[in-house]
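Quick one, tokens below. Sequence please?
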């Protein structure tokens, strides 16, 4: 086994032309994101790192050297996805199947649901196992969840998070969705930010809806980057405060054409701009690509190809202070190399990571490791005495003249409406499509109930652990169908299930934290398409069912949300209808939880 010094010396000797390269990419046009040039030359690799970049015949070629002819090709660095959630039905391994052949070789990932389900030790063990993948995962550690719950402060205590921040594959803290708490100087969050900055790592922000004036204290709290701009004006607001600005194009918000107007119309520098897909739905990746898709959109909207390429390579690498490792074809960097037919499609013919060919012509060639997800504590549990088969536990029992309703204006934005109450039942006029909604603690301690409209008026029963809490979210117009769906999700050990009457019309098990499938990427794409079709047939009115389910239970988007603490008015931070105790046989409710 070579020592670090021996590996270093080997790199130097290959650069001098005295030691044969392991890999030589010969005769291509190099997309040099450092200088902004396209120039001819070769790239030599040894020990998984770039040892030589340039013209001439100075690279030593031996009998073991693999030569890749790149004539007529653009030789570019691998793409870096800077803000990602690797749990949108796919898991971190199956995701590699879908996106590595498209040229994404590094992903900076949110750790939220892994941390919440596995704890710091389980997450660390999983992250170590994922180092064997041919795609580089780097991580951002959460300082808080996306929906307050009893025990949250203890779960995200700094003494539990800080050891993760010290890891070399953790590059900072993940988005803090409660930006008003940052602006108010909330002590626990500020302590986490100070500890992170003391380690020389970065703070990711989430400032959706923040005006220019309200961005000022959030920036003062210490955020380094943000991905929530939705207009070109908001891009300018962030850049002018020194915030690295990520331009999003995802299944939830395909905002990139509008955001790029800051570049193409206002002429702002792209030096501190980054493009991200922000964790899109599987079918979106299959149809539109990942980073490669954003590059196509950028060039089609008038951004010069080199500048677009820099926004997904050297720019994010510079933000995360890892530009000495990835982000360009520089000497000593990780040898993640793409052979592109052109700078229009951005679909690679060949993908190389750590100096090994891992994909060709859209097909994965690398062997992926088998991951024992259960060994990390990833499987969500349900209390043994929790009875989910009782239809009576789900309906909202209204009292008084009116009941508040979560009305979905879009896939994720809601507004409050009020329903008439007659004989304890809430009604809306003229086929309002009102549904019962319940969020049930998997341990059987509590239940939050509400009414929902603007979702899917003909939905009989849906149950899902796929939401920001990973508890059991149940929706529908028929409590019997809701109960059947809830019981089936429990049998699956987490998942999404839909019943029409007593007929099962869709199911997908999500045994990894209640959010992820253990199926292949292609199989997950097909299930995503079937889910979209099933809810469309039930009248789903929006464009991304996964994000509707995900954010119905969050605590940071307007206006009403169904959370573990009860029905929350986000703007006022007021609980309108508190969660109720849900005693289960053998698992008495705990008063401290409600």
């Amino acid at each position: 086994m070579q020592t670090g010094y021996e590996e270093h010396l080997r790199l130097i000797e290959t650069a001098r032309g005295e030691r044969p390269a392991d890999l030589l990419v010969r005769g291509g046009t190099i997309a040099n994101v450092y200088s902004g040039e396209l120039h001819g030359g070769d790239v030599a690799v040894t020990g998984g790192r770039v040892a030589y970049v340039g013209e001439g015949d100075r690279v030593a070629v031996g009998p073991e050297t693999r030569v890749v002819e790149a004539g007529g090709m653009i030789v570019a660095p691998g793409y870096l996805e800077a803000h990602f959630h690797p749990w949108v039905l796919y898991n971190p391994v199956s995701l590699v199947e879908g996106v590595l052949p498209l040229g994404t070789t590094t992903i900076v990932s949110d750790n939220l649901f892994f941390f919440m389900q596995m704890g710091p030790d389980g997450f660390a063990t999983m992250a170590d196992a994922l180092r064997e993948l041919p795609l580089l995962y780097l991580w951002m550690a959460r300082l808080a969840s996306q929906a307050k719950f009893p025990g949250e402060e203890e779960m995200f205590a700094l003494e539990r998070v800080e050891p993760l921040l010290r890891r070399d594959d953790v590059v900072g803290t993940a988005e803090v969705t409660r930006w008003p708490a940052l602006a108010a100087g909330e002590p626990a969050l500020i302590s986490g930010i100070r500890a992170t900055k003391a380690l020389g790592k970065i703070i990711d922000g989430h400032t959706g809806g923040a005006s220019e004036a309200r961005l000022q204290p959030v920036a003062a709290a210490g955020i380094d980057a943000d991905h929530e701009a939705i207009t070109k004006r908001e891009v300018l607001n962030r850049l002018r405060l020194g915030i690295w600005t990520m331009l999003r194009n995802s299944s939830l918000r395909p905002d990139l054409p509008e955001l790029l107007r800051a570049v193409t119309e206002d002429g702002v520098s792209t030096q501190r701009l980054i493009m991200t897909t922000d964790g899109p739905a599987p079918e979106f990746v299959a149809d539109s690509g990942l980073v490669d898709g954003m590059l196509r959109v950028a060039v089609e909207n008038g951004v010069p190809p080199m500048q677009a390429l820099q926004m997904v390579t050297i720019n994010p690498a510079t933000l995360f202070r890892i530009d000495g490792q990835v982000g360009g074809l520089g000497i000593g960097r990780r040898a993640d190399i793409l052979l592109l037919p052109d700078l229009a499609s951005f679909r690679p013919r060949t993908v190389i990571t750590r100096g090994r060919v891992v994909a060709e012509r859209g097909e994965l060639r690398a062997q992926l490791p088998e991951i024992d997800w259960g060994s990390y504590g990833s499987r969500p549990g349900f209390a043994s005495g929790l009875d989910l088969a009782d239809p009576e536990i789900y309906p909202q029992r209204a009292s008084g003249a009116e009941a508040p309703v979560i009305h979905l204006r879009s896939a994720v934005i809601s507004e409050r409406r009020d329903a008439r109450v007659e004989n304890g039942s809430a009604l809306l006029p003229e086929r309002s499509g009102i549904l019962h909604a319940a969020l049930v603690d998997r341990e059987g301690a509590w239940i939050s109930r509400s009414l929902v409209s603007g979702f899917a008026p003909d939905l009989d029963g849906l149950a899902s652990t796929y939401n920001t809490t990973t508890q059991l979210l149940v929706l529908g117009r028929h409590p019997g169908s809701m109960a059947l769906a809830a019981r089936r999700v429990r049998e699956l050990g987490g998942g999404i299930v839909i019943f029409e009457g007593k007929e099962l019309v869709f199911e997908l098990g999500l045994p990894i934290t209640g959010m992820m499938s253990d199926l292949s990427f292609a199989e997950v794409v097909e299930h995503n398409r079937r889910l979209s079709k099933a809810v469309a047939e039930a009248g789903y009115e929006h464009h991304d069912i996964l994000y509707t389910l995900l954010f119905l239970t969050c605590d940071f988007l307007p206006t009403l949300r169904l959370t573990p603490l009860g029905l929350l008015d986000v703007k006022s931070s007021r609980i309108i209808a508190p969660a109720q105790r849900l005693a289960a046989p053998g698992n008495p409710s705990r008063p401290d939880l409600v």
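Residues 584-594 have pLDDT under 50 and may be disordered. The radius of gyration is 25 Å.
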